[in-house]
Amino acid sequence: MARYFIDISFDGTNYHGWQIQPGAITVQEKLQEAISVLLRYEVEITGAGRTDAGVHAKKMIAHFDYSEELDCQQLTYKLNRFLPHDIVINNVYPVTDDMHARFSALTRTYYYYVMLRKDPFMVNYSYRLPFNVDFELMNTAASYLLQVDDFASFCKVHTDVKTTLCNVMKAEWIDDGDGHWHFEITANRFLRNMVRAVVGTLLDVGRGKITIDEFKAIVASRKRTSAGESVPAKALFLQDITY
Description:
The chain is of the alpha+beta class. About 25% of the residues lie in helices and about 30% in strands. The chain has five helices and nine strands; from the N terminus they run βαββαβββαββααβ. It has helices at about 25-40, 70-80, 135-145, 195-205, 210-220, and strands at about 1-10, 45, 55-65, 85-95, 105-115, 125-130, 170-175, 180-185, 235-240. α1 (about 25-40) packs across α2.
């Protein structure tokens, strides 16, 4: 059996996340069906992670195994003809058998977009802030995330994760100009709902609802109920994965 990686981009608006689940349309389901039809073989797709409903991906990696050598360029072309307009295959390429889309990943990077004013071209992909915030103060709070390793306070409750430990390597608010900003966060792994909860809590800092010391206490509490509300999914993008 040969193993192949798939580099995928998708708009998550119309999907109930990445992972296949009963009674809901997902990206993994659409992709798995498409490859199985084209190869005339029931394949199983394994993704690098799970994105929640409404979350987008500039770069998602998945893998599948197949018994024969494939023309990857031709398969990429056929998949893009077969799949709906909001799922794009950037590349299909062979990898060694020990490469795994999820477990071989070294880092994952997410962007969360916010805007300070109405923008009709970003309304579906950015969160318009209904209040003023201090981005410098939020960056001070965000830098603290690089000093801790337990993110239980930002993890959705009643999940099946074995550990809430993560190694965050970057957490920074970046000015994109003209009233647009994005929060960039890179880590070896992410917990379910983690980025949206982190952003929501940082916005509480930025609007003066909590102090930096209170933010640190929230992290130390390991209680999701102590952190801020999760921000809308529509503005979150899985930006990159490295191997």
